Amino acid sequence: VKDFGIEKTLKNLGIKEENKGTSVGGKYFASGKVIESISPVDGKLIAKVKTSGESDYDKVIETAQKAFQEFRLIPAPKRGEIVRQLGLKLREYKDDLGKLVSYEMGKSLQEGLGEVQEMIDICDFAVGLSRQLQGYTMHSERPGHRMYEQYHPLGVVGIITAFNFPVAVWSWNTALAWICGNVTIWKPSEKTPLCAIACQNIMMEVLKENNLPEGISSVLVSDHEIGQKLVDDKRVALVSFTGSTRVGRMVSSKVAERFGKSILELGGNNAIIITKEADIDMSIIGAVFGAVGTAGQRCTSTRRLIIHESVYNEVKTRLTKAYGQLKIGNPLDENNHVGPLIDTDAVNQYEEAIKKCKKEGGKFVVEGGVLTGKDYESGCYVKPCVAEVKNSYEIVQHETFAPILYLIKYKTLEEAIAIQNDVPQGLSSAIMTQNLREAELFLSHAGSDCGIANVNIGTSGAEIGGAFGGEKETGGGRESGSDAWKYYMRRQTNTINYTAQLPLAQGIKFDL
Ligand code: UN1
Question: Which residues does the entry assign to the active site, renumbered to this chain (predicted)?
Answer without folding.
Answer: 265
